[in-house]
Each structure stands twice: as structure tokens, then as C-alpha cells.
Amino acid sequence: MHTYSTGDKIFAKVNSLTSIETELPFSYYSLPYCKPDEGIKKSAENLGELLMGDQIDNSPYRFRMNVNESVYLCTTPPLSEHGVKLLKQRTRDLYQVNMILDNLPVMRYATQNGIKIQWTRDLYQVNNNNEDYIINHLKFTVLVHEYEGRGVEIIGTGEEGMGVISEGDKKVASGYEIVGFEVVPCSVKYDSETMIKLHKYDNITSPSCPLELEKSQIIRQQERVSFTYEVEFVKSDVRWPSRWDAYLKMEGARVHWFSILNSLMVIFFLAGIVFVIFLRTMRRDLTRYEELDKEAQAQMNEELSGWKLVVCDVF
Predict the structure, then answer these.
(1) pLDDT tens digits for 143-187?
(2) Whole-structure pTM value
(3) Which of 50, 108, 261, 297 is surrounded by the most beta carbons within 10 Å?
(4) 97 pLDDT above the threshold of 50
């Protein structure tokens, strides 16, 4: 559990790009996204993330606890033919961005058939009328729960011995816990000539998500894409141990039947190989034992030769 004070810097992380259509993930920075100033670094925090095959990297998305702001991130160079082709291909394959804040995956809400659905992936791009539009503005909502330190008994080795943390120390232990991480993605067409004059993390006017495609950022060759984001901190009554409850109630996940079938085929194939090896070994062992029995029988017949064959008649 991490406890933050007002104004503390918190950096979100990015995971690999995944799709519900294909099984192959790609690195987040394989596409022309804004990169952190200190360079790309692996940011996996535990063994489980490595075993799951996650490619978690640092990101330039910086938040300050309890500071609501809308900031400029960066503007890409003019998109090349290869970059446009790559973006369009990822769009057609329905690849999506996965982000993490304080070990919580970002959650996106959508309405389908009048039902509110929760997703743990930020929709990466929209596609309509054979044109592709990139999502370049993210509206984050960070749910925080105010944590108050409690009096804790401590045992010392000095003369004072056992004592209780004072009220002043309680304030030091107090802070805010992150209990939710939500996002609303938007595609906004910016004036690139105006945006390139800004510096990273400069404050901007919060844009409204346009409903018209003419005001959205299209993917086109020699087009510059400006990335921005805004963050709002909202106090929540959800406590830190219960922050994963919302993820357990998610709907809309798609079963990867191809992946399941592929895994079963691999299991049966390997089991068949093991069975064939086991059968050949058992057959070879049984053959060897039969040969040993034949040799023992032949040896016994050789011993019953000569006078031993008429011993009963003699005596």
C-alpha cells in the first residue's frame, strides 16, 4: 500500500498493446507515442507480472496528488508512410492501450445497448468511413481515499521502552491512497504549429471531446499528432483493501477460444509424445525380460543332462 501526500508526483505505467482479435502483443513504444525524458525503462514490480508476459514500461504521464490539471505532453514529427501504415494496421486489428497507476489497470466505461460496461483497456483508435482517427487526449479520473494514521505501539531498546506514536506523528502517517483509475479517451484535432511551441507539462485549456469527426485527429501522412491529457482527483469512500472489487464485476470480456483450442492441442500433442515414449520403453523392457526367462529356461535344461535324466530309475 502506497500513501501519497498532496502534491506528490505519481507516474503512470504502460503495458503492451493487446487485441481481442489477435494473440500477438506489441510494445507500447512500437508506435509513435510520447516517450519519457529519462528514457524507456522496464517497470515490472513483481514476479507475477513477468510470468503473465506483461511488458510494463515507464511513461511520461505524470500526476500530482490532488492537483487537477490539463497539460500538454508532446507533438510527434510528421508521420511517415511507414508510421501511418503501422497505425492503420493496429487500428484494423483493434489493438488497445493498457495503462497502470499504483498497480491498478485503467478502467474505461462504455454504454452498449443501454447497459454500462466496464473495460480495463483504453480504446486505442476509432474507425469510421474508411478513415482512421487516433486517440490523443485522455481524461483521467483518479479515485483517492484519505488515510489517517492510527496510534501504534512501538517497542524501543532505550530507557523509554514501550510507547505510543503521538498525534503529530499521526499526521505524518496520514495521506491519500489510490483506489480507482478511470479514463475517457478522446480524439482532438490540434493546431500543430501552436502546440509545438509549448513545453512538456505546460498547462492548457481542457478540450471537450468532439462528436464530429471533422474535429478529430485523423491518421494521415505528414500529419503531426499532439498528445495531451487531463487528470481529476475525486475522493472516494472505497478503502484500499476493496479497490479491486470493481474489476471483479467487469463484463464485456471476450473468450479467446482459439487460444484455448491451441493450448489443448499442444497439451494433447505433448501427452501423445510422452505416451509413445512410455509405450516403447515398456515394450523394450518386456522383450528383455522375456529373453532373460528364455535364457534361464535353456540354462536349466542344460543342467538336466546326462545321468540326471535317469537318476530316478537308478535309485
Answers:
(1) 999 877 654 444 444 444 444 444 444 444 578 999 999 998 888
(2) 0.68
(3) 108
(4) yes
Helices (H), the chain: 47-51, 81-92, 167-173, 192-195, 245-248, 257-303, 311-314
Report in angstroms the alpha-carbon separations of 18 from 14, 26, 56, 111, 169.
12, 7, 12, 22, 45
Residue 254 — pLDDT band, cuts 50, 70, 90? low
164 in helix, strand or coil? strand
pLDDT at 161: 45
| Amino acid at site 205 | T
Is the CA virtual torsion 192, 69, 60, 22 positive or negative?
A: negative
Find the radius of gyration of the CA atoms of the chain.
Answer: 33
Q: Kindly list the distances between the CA atom of residue 267 and the CA atoms of 51, 109, 211, 248, in Å, as whole numbers in the listed order.
A: 19, 37, 49, 29
> How many residues are recorded in the chain?
315
Which pLDDT value is given to residue 168? 46
Query: Strand ranges (DSSP E) for 21-157?
Result: 57-64, 69-75, 95-96, 99-101, 104-105, 107-112, 115-119, 125-128, 131-134, 137-147, 153-155
Distances from the Cα of 115 to the Cα of 6, 109, 112, 141, 251, angstroms: 36, 10, 5, 21, 10
Q: What is the pLDDT of residues 3-48, one digit of tens each?
A: 899 899 999 999 888 887 777 888 889 888 999 988 888 877 777 7
The set of cell numbers assigned to 38 is 529519462
Helix (H, G, I), strand (E, B) or coil at 175: strand
Q: How many CA atoms lie within 13 A of 87 on its CB side?
A: 26
| Strand, coil or helix: 172 | helix
Residue from 161, 144, 162, 160 nearest 152 by CA: 162
Q: How far apart are alpha carbons 115 and 132 in whole angstroms?
A: 27
In Å, how far from its chain's centre is CA 27?
11
Instruction: Record the cell numbers describing residue 245, joined without a space.
Output: 472489487
Position 277 pLDDT exceeds 90: yes
| Cβ pair 235, 146 in contact under 8 A | yes
Dist. CA 188–CA 210, nearest whole Å: 7
